Amino acid sequence: MDAIPTTKRRIGIIGFGKIGGYLIDKILTSDNLELAFVWNRSAEAVRAKVDGCYILEDLNDFQSRRPDLVVEVAHPSITKEFGARILLFADYMIGSPSALADDELFTNLKQAARHHAVYIPSGALWGGEDIRKMADSGTLQALKVTMTFHPESLKLQGSLKEKNDLVKERTVLYDGCVRDICPMAPNNVNTMAAAAIAGHNLGFADVQCTLLSDPDVGNWHIVQIDTWGAGNIVTGNAFHVQTLRKNPAQMGAVTGSATLLTFFASLQRAHGQPNGIHLC
Question: Using an 8 Å Cβ cutoff, are 190 and 122 in contact?
């Protein structure tokens, strides 16, 4: 059982989108958390909704607010620019783990996590702890994440965006390893990235994924996870678990409503672990 903090933990929030705003509201009404700071690329967007005493103008000054945990819910670039430095002063929860598809960045962050812990929220990854246990024991043979979104809910880049712009019916936009999709869909594939971290014996290069764009999916984000363990996959005699998660989501929303609840639950769990990288 996780230890219960005896004093309020100071939480710094990077990003003021849907998740960031939700977390701030929950922290401000919490009995065991307090807001250390809020930083957003546009401070004006924050100023209208958050007391000025919490607003951090320059993210380079984050340590002056003495956070115990810094939570990134902005963009993968934050981890690349600030992740290692944050870990010198505080624990770090990465809301955009697609950043870790960069092998060099992931290696550097593991080394920086000698000072404090890195936490990866499970988000829409159902069964993440079970996947991690299988990876720890070496029994995880294969892992695939299939995600389906309405075209308007996909925030894509490059050729993937061009393909999605033309979608008129259910279409496979991508089918391959998690590592290669992360730079093209950094806002939509964090569940895939979390799976690659949980299934660490396979990693970003060998965890497989499919991204579908479906105009008829309605107000849902759908995540299917297929996990294979001990046995013979070729003959169909291997251990296999398949989960299907349907998350209600407004049309065009990147984040489903249930993800907000699980994200705050992850924040509450993000403490008390030894240095290193942990799912929460």
Answer: no
The rounded percent of the chain whose pLDDT value lies above 90 is 86
Rounded to two decimals, the pTM is 0.93
Structure tokens at 275: 């240095």
184 vs 155: CA distance, rounded Å:
9
What are the backbone dihedrals phi and psi of residue 182, each rounded to the nearest 5 degrees, phi first? -55, -45
CA distance 217 to 213: 8
Query: For position 6, what pLDDT does the model report?
Result: 56
Mean pLDDT of the chain: 94
Q: How far apart are CA 211 and CA 184, in angstroms?
A: 11
Secondary structure of residue 150 in the 3-state scheme: coil
Nearest Cα residue to 63 out of 3, 6, 115: 115
Do residues 112 and 275 lie in contact, with contact meaning Cβ atoms separated by under 8 Å?
Answer: no
DSSP alpha helices (H): ranges in 57-127?
Answer: 76-89, 103-112
d(CA 196, CA 209): 10
State how far the alpha carbon of 264 is from the alpha carbons of 1, 119, 258, 260, in Å. 18, 13, 10, 6
Which is nearest to 144 in space by CA: 183, 205, 212, 195? Answer: 195
Strands (E), the chain: 9-14, 33-39, 69-72, 91-94, 117-120, 142-149, 171-177, 208-213, 220-228, 240-248, 276-279
Provide the pLDDT confidence category of residue 2 given band limits of 50, 70 and 90: low
